[in-house]
């Protein structure tokens, strides 16, 4: 029912037969996933090998692409002196703060917009105007208003994230099955009960799917903000590498971003499974 | 036989008109009057498009008549009426609640304490033979089991009238038969008034204490037939000569409707 589903997490489930329905039908195991995993691994190894050979033999100048060994030693050096850890932490902090503020603002607003048309009418024009703007277009204004400190970075993340969270929330709230609302009322539920027991849980899978998509967007916001004006953070690290002509450092920064976002996504998936126990059994 | 008692549920000269997408008025129910008495098992039988569901939705308070009124204990139903609980064909279970969470929903809405709810709910889960499945989510259950959860959920909420809109239509024939027998048993145990929509003559004959045959477009009552087949009833009643006679009476009433509109109920 969620708008965006993680294809890798969808398992085929057996149809429970009456009267011996089983608790959790075992996923059908085939050899295909294992083989596909092997193909992925080989594909990565092939590109790494091509990188190593082409730089080692001097086919590609280190000015354009450093050797893999240089990237590894750069990463280790920056880990050892604590610089990398600090940059990752700074960026993560800014993302989390901006992202959480965006959620706190946009989720309640989205729910109200979905159930109360006047609210939607009031907010919709701004959504239409602001949606096409990439978060970097907010950099001049936010610098003027907030300087170049933490608040400005958080503001960029916020401006780049809240509209997506809002749109996902409105959409998934509107898609809650009206029959379930009727059923709840027929069982004596009042407006508040309907909100707490039907609309919120019904919209939750879609909202969480939206948050997962938005989290990656929030990361790209913080990086662009850091590249333009920041003393630290992964974006600043990459920009320093560029200024110093240290391409290995640029690659270390890029790699870190990928890894951090991947880890964040995994954590989000775990959280999702914890919050939506019923979704594990959905056959859709 | 019950003419002197005041009806629990009644429709008085009810007309319901819908406006369709082309701005045309469609009369779903036309000047319909009906008295339903406590403890009755009423089956509304008719071809599709005869306004059966519209009547039921008005009894539940989901929609209001265009003219006339629907009454519960003589008082007009003007909003969703929890005393007339609806059981939907598509189950309408809350997917995020377990079997227990679904069944106790009505009690929770009444503000009953957790401990008390647990105790009450256990009885209803046992009544529909779902013991051991309390902590399962609806998606883990088969269609027949899901429909039993909706019945338990409605019985636990303890409405005075059960409204059932083709509740077994989505089930396979065998599960359906089991469910029909369970419903007969539940009706006998609880003595609840039931209004049941079906387009199956056999289902109506097996379940009802009174059968109401509807005509289609606009929906009107074509005939009211008391069902005097012996109770307690069992599937085997279908082999009695009395049953055959009643069935052919009902079919002759419906046949002309079906020929007129082309939508056949199951024979």
Q: What is the H-and-E element order of chain A?
A: HHHHHHHHHH
Structural class of chain B: alpha/beta
Oligomer: heterodimer
- Sum up the overall morphology of chain B in one term: globular
Approximately how much beta-strand content do the residues of chain B carry? 15-25%
Provide the CATH topology of chain A. MetI-like fold
Most extensive interface: pair and counts?
A: A-B, 33 and 35 residues
Question: Helical content of chain A, roughly?
Answer: over 70%
Which structural category fits the helices and strands of chain A?
A: mainly alpha
> Describe the biggest sheet of chain A?
none
Radius of gyration of chain A: 23 Å
Summarize this structure briefly.
The complex is a heterodimer of chains A (284) and B (267). Chain A has 284 residues and is mostly helical.
List the helices and strands and how they pair.
The complex is a heterodimer of chains A (284) and B (267).
Chain A: H1 32-56, H2 68-80, H3 83-115, H4 117-130, H5 139-146, H6 150-174, H7 178-186, H8 191-228, H9 234-243, H10 247-275
Chain B: E1 9-19, E2 25-36, E3 41-45, H1 52-60, E4 67-72, E5 75-76, E6 84-87, H2 99-103, H3 105-109, H4 114-127, H5 143-157, E7 161-165, H6 173-190, E8 193-198, H7 201-207, E9 210-215, E10 220-226, H8 241-261
Parallel strand pairs in B: 3-8, 3-9, 6-7, 7-8
Antiparallel strand pairs in B: 1-2, 1-4, 4-5, 9-10
Helix pairs in contact in B: 4-5
Which features would summarize this protein structure in a list?
heterodimer; A: 284 residues; mainly alpha; MetI-like fold; globular; disordered N terminus; B: 267 residues; alpha/beta; 6-stranded mixed β-sheet; 4-stranded antiparallel β-sheet; 8 helices; 10 strands
Structure, explained:
The complex is a heterodimer of chains A (284) and B (267). With 284 residues, chain A is mostly helical. Chain A has a single domain, classed as MetI-like fold (Orthogonal Bundle). Chain A is 72% helix and 0% strand. Chain A contains 10 helices and no strands. In chain A, helix 5 packs across helix 6 and helix 7 runs antiparallel to helix 8. The longest helix of chain A is centred in the last third of the chain and has 38 residues. The N terminus of chain A is likely disordered. Chain B is of the alpha/beta class and 267 residues long. Chain B has a domain of 66 residues. In chain B, 35% of the residues lie in helices and 24% in strands. In chain B, the strands form 2 sheets. In chain B, strands 6-7-8-3-9-10 form a 6-stranded mixed β-sheet, with helices on both faces. A 4-stranded antiparallel β-sheet of chain B has the order 2-1-4-5, with helices on one face. In chain B, helix 4 crosses helix 5. Chain B is globular and about 55 Å long. The model of chain B has no long low-confidence stretch (mean pLDDT 86). The interface between A and B is medium-sized, with 33 and 35 residues.
């Amino acid at each position: 029912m969620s708008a965006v589903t993680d294809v890798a997490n969808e398992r085929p489930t057996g149809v429970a037969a009456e009267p011996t329905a089983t608790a959790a039908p075992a996923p059908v195991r085939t050899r295909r996933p294992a083989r596909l995993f092997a193909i992925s691994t080989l594909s990565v190894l092939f590109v790494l090998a091509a990188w190593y050979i082409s730089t080692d033999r001097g086919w590609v100048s280190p000015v354009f692409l450093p050797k893999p060994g240089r990237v590894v030693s750069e990463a280790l050096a920056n880990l050892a002196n604590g610089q990398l850890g600090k940059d990752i932490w700074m960026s993560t902090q800014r993302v989390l703060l901006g992202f959480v503020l965006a959620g706190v603002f946009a989720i309640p607003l989205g729910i109200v917009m979905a159930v109360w048309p006047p609210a939607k009418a009031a907010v919709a024009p701004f959504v239409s105007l602001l949606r096409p703007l990439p978060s970097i277009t907010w950099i001049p204004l936010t610098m003027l208003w907030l300087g170049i400190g933490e608040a400005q970075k958080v503001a960029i993340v916020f401006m780049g994230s809240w509209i997506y969270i809002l749109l996902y929330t409105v959409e998934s709230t509107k898609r809650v099955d009206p029959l379930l609302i009727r059923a709840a009322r027929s069982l004596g539920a009042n407006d508040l009960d309907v909100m707490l027991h039907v609309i919120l849980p019904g919209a939750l899978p879609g909202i969480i799917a939206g948050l997962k998509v938005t989290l990656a967007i929030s990361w790209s916001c913080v990086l662009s903000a850091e590249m333009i004006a920041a003393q630290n953070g992964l974006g600043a690290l990459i920009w320093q590498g560029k200024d110093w002509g240290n391409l290995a450092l640029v690659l270390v920064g890029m790699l870190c971003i990928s890894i951090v976002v991947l880890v964040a996504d995994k954590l989000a998936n775990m959280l999702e499974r914890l919050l939506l126990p019923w979704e594990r059994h959905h056959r859709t | 036989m019950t003419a002197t008692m005041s009806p629990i549920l009644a429709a008085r000269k009810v007309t319901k008109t819908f406006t369709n997408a082309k701005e045309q008025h469609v009369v779903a129910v036309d000047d319909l009057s009906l008295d339903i008495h406590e403890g009755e098992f009423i089956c509304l039988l008719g071809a599709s498009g005869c306004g059966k569901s519209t009547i039921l939705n008005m009894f539940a308070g989901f929609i209001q008549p265009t003219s006339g009124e629907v009454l519960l204990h003589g008082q007009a139903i003007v909003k969703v009426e929890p005393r007339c609980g609806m059981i939907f064909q598509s189950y309408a279970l809350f997917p995020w609640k377990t079997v227990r969470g679904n069944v106790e929903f009505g009690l929770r809405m009444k503000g009953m304490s957790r401990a008390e709810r647990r105790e009450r709910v256990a009885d209803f889960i046992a009544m529909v033979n779902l013991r051991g499945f309390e902590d399962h989510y609806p998606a883990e259950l088969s269609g027949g089991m899901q429909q039993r959860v909706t019945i338990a959920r409605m019985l636990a909420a303890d409405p005075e009238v059960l409204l059932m809109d083709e509740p077994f239509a989505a089930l396979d024939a065998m599960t359906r038969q089991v469910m029909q027998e369970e419903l007969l048993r539940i009706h006998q145990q609880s003595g609840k008034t039931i209004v049941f929509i079906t387009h199956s003559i056999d289902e109506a004959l097996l379940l009802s204490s009174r059968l109401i045959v509807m005509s289609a477009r606009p929906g009107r009552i074509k005939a009211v037939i008391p069902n005097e087949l012996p109770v307690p009833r069992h599937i085997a009643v279908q082999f009695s000569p009395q049953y055959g006679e009643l069935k052919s009476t009902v079919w002759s009433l419906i046949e002309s409707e079906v020929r007129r509109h082309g939508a056949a109920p199951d024979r």
